[in-house]
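Side project, low priority. Logging it here so it doesn't get lost.
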Amino acid sequence: MSERKKNSQMETNASPQPAQAAYQDLGFGSRIERSSKRMINQDGSFNVRRIGGGIGAFHPYQYLITIPWSKFHLAVVLFYLTVNGLFSGLYILAGVHNLTGTPSMGMDMPHWLEDFLHAFFFSMQTFTTVGYGSISPMGFVTNMIAGVEALCGLMAFALITGVLYGRFSRATAKIRYSKEALIAPYQNINAFMFRTINRRQNQLIELSAVVTMAWYEETESGFRQKFAPLPLEREKVALFPLSWTIVHPITPDSPLYRKTPEDLEKMNAEFMIMIQGYDDTFAQIVHTRTSYKYFDLAWGRKFDMIYHTDEDSGMIVVEVNKVDQHSHAQLN
């Protein structure tokens, strides 16, 4: 063998493969303090809070597209009321008498409040370009304010419509994980396992799962965090019509081998789950994440069956709400 081939082979054997090197820190580093609760929250978000990023770190579209629907609706209502309140103040400064055709409110209220309401309702009509015609502006200043508000209204509703469409068209996976992961009997050994199910009626295909275990190991310089991928019984499934129990057999090569609940608590162990698949409805790849801590493990349990065949129709019935159910099982 030539010297060049020998050196090349030595370099190949000495350096880790890219897939293996990727699990040395998983992007979290190895110096996270042991007091950290989780690295990945159960809802899939990272347990990380960024500070000091400055104003440029905030992007309105990214914020509005990712917040929950309740917060999105609240943000739209607050924006609508705030903008109309500001323009109402401008109309009052320009003089409410420049708004002709202001009818009586028919209520006993202070004069200033009635003026504000006239300005506010006129602002709403202008901002939405409804223009009922009962109130109309007079004078150069008031007409200019109304023109600027109408332009702002057109732009604002175009942006809100785009964000609303983006929220509806955004492909997301609604995969439900079992609340607890199990240490259960598996063949003639034991295994770490958890169950997943698709909450929606859409079709997910070509699913793949990656499970990584993170723990703390005491060294001379203190605790250091370590990561190891957990080999799975089945890393991929072509179709996902029922549930999928993801199983890691605890063999002598597993970091869980001969570990007790007390050992995992001392290690502050965390199991990070990443699943991705192809969503046939959106024609996009979707992904989801979660994690289990050592206290999320149930020892000596096995998952109960959650589907059966309907005798009348012959269809397979899957009970999604029973994905968490498990019963006692003797460990090997």
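Brief comment: The longest strand covers residues 204-219.
Revisit when time allows.
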